[in-house]
Amino acid sequence: MRRRRVYAVVALAGAGALALSSCSTPQVESSIEEGTSVTIGWNQAFYEYNNLSATGNATANANIIYLMNDSFNYYDKDLNLVPNESFGTYEKLSDDPLTVKYTIADGVEWSDGVPVSAADILLAWAAQSGKYNNVEPVYDEETGEITNQAELDAGVFFNSSSPGLALVTEVPEVSEDGTSITLTYSKPFADWQVAIWSGSQTGVPAHVVAQHALGIEDPAEATDAMVTAIQDGDVTKLSPIASFWNTGFQFVNLPDDPSLYVSNGAYVLTDLVENQYLTLQANPNYTGEHPATVERVTVRYNEDPMAQVQALQNGELDLISPQSTADVLTALQGIDGVEVVTGVEGTYEHVDMVFDNGGPFDPATYGGDAAKALAVRQAFLKTIPRQEIINTIIAPLNPDAEVRNSFLIVPGAPGYDEMVAGNGSDAYPAVDIPGAQALLAQAGVTTPVDVRMLFGQTNQRRQSEFALMQASAAQAGFNLIDASAVQWGPLLDDTTIYDASLFGWQSTSTAVTEADANYRSTGQNNFGGYNNPEVDALFDQLQVETDPDAQFDLQLQIEQQLWSDAFGTVIFQVPSVTAYNQNVTGVDPITIAPTIFWNFWDWQTTGETAASPTATAPAETEGAEG
Hints:
Blueprint: E1 4-5, E2 33-42, H1 59-68, E3 73-75, E4 81-83, E5 88-95, E6 98-104, H2 118-129, H3 149-154, E7 173-174, E8 180-184, H4 206-214, H5 219-232, H6 235-247, E9 267-273, E10 277-282, E11 294-301, H7 305-313, E12 319-320, H8 326-333, E13 338-353, H9 370-381, H10 386-394, H11 416-422, H12 433-443, E14 449-454, H13 460-476, E15 478-482, E16 500-506, H14 516-519, H15 533-544, H16 548-564, E17 568-581, E18 584-585, E19 604-605
């Protein structure tokens, strides 16, 4: 995420209700063609196998995890939520209280031969519900280092959250045979169908976490110990379990320990070289309904879109979906034998500000004067040249592109026009330098005001956006400082090094509550420390509201608060371009993650595809996170 991040609302309403009965699914024969391969270009390197964690929740990870792991459901071409009964089933047992039973299908196993079980779902709940967290990290404001490590080591802290699973306040019930688990909600939850183990948002293997965290070699014994620790609330055991869950699956090269990347889906990981490439091989023991049709998938990393275009033309890549520019589109359209698909992604570009780092947007900087900090934020927003960015960078790709003026609803989606008419975004209709200068003067703020902006250093589009922002901000007295980094995504948690960020949110579902994590005071993706109790309360209501009209009214109130508080701004919906050579068929991208990867089981190769890379890949095709 861009780094393309993985969490934004795409549509106003969630998917329809599902009530699925439990059943087992017979093994599906693979239609794989031996020796076939596809090489894909992507803009950010894989770096963490646990994409439910605060650090790992990024599209670059989710895409790969989607290829490696099955889930209870997924989104199809039309963004319908489709059940995957070959992995398992789920059934709503009751509306009052909301009670949902999940059952793993017969024969579903991790690639090390350990059965997927209710324990895996239980761990995902424990990690995302917040039930056991009794401590959280404290960071040094100057160095960004954790100052209470001893307290963390002794306590329990899972660095993840879920608005839905937080409503499951009692420990879920695990069946005696370990194949089923029942979640009972304390309140209704609008998006219960995608609350856990859905799409690319799957969990990590419980037995692996338990083996490492508890020092138990036998996987069954380790799993039992972990289940007991969760059921008993055993802090002594949950502490190392949480610690390993948070960080144990972070790697940028193939680990020596194969337990760190066991999978249960169509593919297994066989190679990973930092910032160069990743290779997946068809899982010979996969029994689900989405088997691999291509034996080997390699993903090469390079954030330079023109380098990806050149690699596609040279036959080094078969499929790319780069961050598009007019030059990229023109170059692709000039290559013979290449299919080009354009559209709009479920990703939107945005700027967020930091509220609690002692910087220019923090009330503490002004002796606790919240009004003065608000004026500085408002002034800064008045300098962001959103229309100029559209005209200069986006319109050559999408002549119909417009400034996005909603945090929660995509332009063109039901309710968007009504949202924009009433959410308060009209306070920032265009760049207003005199207005920004007046706000700073009225607040008594001395200029220049330094603002450090974090973004992807090697992302050319964002470099261009930053340059336009920097020139505009300078006119009003803001000194916009380049705080970009190559490996910038994990730095979002360290607000000691930046005051504003520029990147994109990308959606993984159509859930109406998905933006909760971005704007709630305790939200996993609320990196800037925004804290508005009224917004929290509105999200509490949105979680349990199932009527679409009432949902919209709550979303409108949330947006009114966000714009009034000068939380940040949204700029544009990202245009998309996908291109692939004539030797690959079945590619049919969707607007939400996992985009081009969603129907990998339909891919076919009809000729000679790109060769697999080696660790000595040429520099021009190496990639970096951005």
